[in-house]
Amino acid sequence: MGKMEVMSPDHLELLRSSAFESEHAQLYDSSYMQHEAAALALESDIENSLASISPDGNSDEHRRIARTQIFIHRERQKALRPHLESGSGVEDGEGRECVFVPAPMHWGANGDLDEESGSLSSVHNLLTWQASYSPLSYTPMYDELPSPDIPYYSMLDPTQPPITYHLHRTREWTTSGCRKYIYSAREYSDKYSLYMLETSHRGDNQVNAAEFYRVAEFPTPCISIILSGIDKRDSNAAYKSRCIHLRGPFATPIKEYPDRQQKIPWSPRRFTYGGRRFVWKPGDPHDDVMPETLYEFQNDWAKPGSRTGKRLDDAKERPLVWGEKKRKGKVESYTIHFAGGVDQVFREMLLASQMVRQVCLFTAME
Questions:
Q1: Long-range contact list for 172-178, CB < 8 A, 24+ apart?
Q2: pLDDT at residue 205 above 80?
Q3: Is residue 243 part of a domain?
Q4: Which residues contact 330 (CB under 8 A, 6 or more apart)?
């Protein structure tokens, strides 16, 4: 059997994208075959890179990315296989739901940023655009925005169930002597990856940046993350609070600021989104790595008598994000839940924040 002809990078990327788009169109047979063709093309690309004399084509990182993409395509085939005989529809013949990969913005399959969607992300997009680009002193739609006096959770669709992700981490050494941390978020059945976060860590250096990906777009990040530094390095440095800046589809990044900089624990940590104020609080005071719990609040104030910057607030009782720990033998993993109805873009920002915080803590535990 002859070698498969090498596919151009543009053609390969088009094939890969088509495989994921076909999933959303419920063209399961077509999607399955496109995933197969993409995986074979990537395998051929790796074989040719090993024989390449070009530094760009013959790189460990290039092959690592290709192997990760192959794994993603093969995993999607496993997810689609039960649905091949059921024809169109979200469920297979036994009523099992097909979990689609998160849709990139440029497909047009995700309208969270459209004004007509009414999502909190569309409000945030409008407000950041107004602050950055609008020549008007106000945005015409501004008066129609929901009042922040109305709790955000009360505006969510009560018929929507919570969204659950299972978090799993791996690490590997790179040729430069760094540890690369790869953190994945799987869907509710804990079988198939939907998101990935990657960062590198060397010795006593701090984790100061990370990239968050939808698996359909890897290795192009949808959120880039920057963390503030720790002034004094010691054994507890990874447990100390830091600012987190998340740059996604908006004109300016989302900025999370802790009440107390460089203090244990990481939270409370506050940020504004869509004209509303939110606060991360510890999910478990006895487990630093437990996903934090997110609440909406309106007002905060200095805690009477505190000399270290502690603050109080009027956070709503109902959480929007919460987590739990799972243990299988000696292996611990974490699950994170989002209130039903939180739009995809906002959910991705929150998920990226939690995953990068946990990765920073993992560097101190391993």
A1: 174/60, 174/61, 174/200, 175/60, 176/202, 177/202, 178/202
A2: no
A3: yes
A4: none
| End-to-end Cα spacing for the chain | 46
Residue 37: half-sphere exposure toward Cβ, Cα within 13 Å = 18
DSSP letter assigned to residue 307: S
- Confirm if 352 and 327 have CB atoms less than 8 A apart: no
The amino acid that residue 92 corresponds to is D
The per-residue pLDDT for range 6-50, each reduced to its tens digit, is 788 899 999 999 999 998 888 999 999 999 999 999 999 998 888
**Confidence label for 152 from pLDDT (cuts 50, 70 and 90):** very high
Residue 66, CA distances (Å) to 11, 34, 69, 221 in order: 15, 16, 5, 15
**Predicted TM-score (pTM) of this structure:** 0.91
Same domain, 75 and 194: no
Residue 1 lies in a domain: no
Q: 248-278, pLDDT tens digit by residue?
A: 999 899 999 999 999 999 999 999 999 999 9
CA dist 15 and 6 (Å) reads 13
| Domain assignment of residue 274, given as a range | 163-365
Say whether both 174 and 53 belong to one domain: no
